[in-house]
Here is the input.
Amino acid sequence: MYDLIKGLAAQLLMPLPISLGLMGLGLVLLMWRYRRTGWSVATLGLAVLVLSSWGPVAERLLMPLETRHPSLQALPDGTTAEAVVVLGGGWRPDAPWSSVGRLNDSSAIRLMEGIRLWRLAPELPLIVTGASRRADVAPIAQGYAQAARELGVPEAQLRVLDWPTDTGQEAQAVRDALGEGARVVLVTSASHMPRSMRHFQQVGLDPVAAPTHYLVNVGRERSLGFWVPSAGHLRKSERAVYEALGLLMVGREG
Here is the structure.
């Protein structure tokens, strides 16, 4: 029930529901003849929608999350990591595609980055994590494992943790598998990395950040698409809000 309420609250606090709610409230106030207040509320709702769909605002919201941890080009000299850990995402297990094609964008990029880093230290285990919140959908960790095998990761080097349903549970599962204090190379989307690092540190692990799947378009500030409101920019704002809420919850849980 807690997970359901948390997920519902997060969805309702996204820019699109908020803007639609404000515009709807504005229309109701207009119908009740509160014209000035109604127009003000409706205009505020429209402004929230337009601004959150506009590149300069969306990327300004997302950039602090994505740049908090630098990209990990190579394992630092003297790193004594015990595993490379790829956090779960989404996939379509019943799609008639290849094992990689069934992974969604973020999952595929996370797995590719995890395998790239694992190849720098192939003696380490590659840990893939993640379950599904739906009983009829197979765990993403199983999808990761299938794709990793086909991409050359030996079965002996794979560890599949297919029961955690959120980042906090993933951190606990990795700690249970490796022990408290273990140092791990942590791979997830750049915007998700600050929250992931906090979860892993809270359970007593020593994570090394390896962010990937960047959404901020570095160097596109002068392109026309950057200045035109779009659904793509709206998704960036939604991601920024979602991760900011997640960080707030981790802080309270800690």
Remarks:
- Residues 83-212 form a domain with the Rossmann fold fold (CATH 3.40.50.620).
